[in-house]
Specification:
The chain has about 100 residues and is an alpha/beta fold. It has helices at about 55-70, 85-90; strands spanning about 1-15, 25-40, 75-80, 95-100.
């Protein structure tokens, strides 16, 4: 079995709901995401990917589509934020995600 890891970085803003410190305010971080895939290399000598566990191009495309494009330069807030405040979040930015 082999493992391959690819690291990605993205920037995202958030605020901590009901927190008593400065992080209750919107602030941002640069995130490092490491994705590791484990398995066995393709052993088919006729296959174009022989000897490979995964094509890094495909791994990069999948992570970009599923995670990076969604969260990079987005505002992420707790889904418990009052509904009356949600609309004002979209006045700040188009990329807002509410999570549990």
């Amino acid at each position: 079995m082999i493992r391959v890891t690819k690291e990605f970085t993205f920037d995202m803003a958030h605020a901590l709901l009901n927190y008593d410190g400065p992080c209750k305010n919107i602030h941002g971080h640069t995130y490092r995401l490491q994705v590791t895939v484990a398995g066995y290399a393709n052993q088919d000598p006729q296959h174009v990917k022989c000897g490979m566990l995964i094509d890094f191009g495909q791994l990069k495309k999948t992570v970009l589509e599923k995670i990076i494009e969604k969260y990079d330069h987005a505002l992420v807030l707790n889904e418990s934020i009052p509904a009356s405040l949600r609309a004002s979040c979209y006045a700040i930015t188009e990329k807002v995600h509410f999570v549990s």
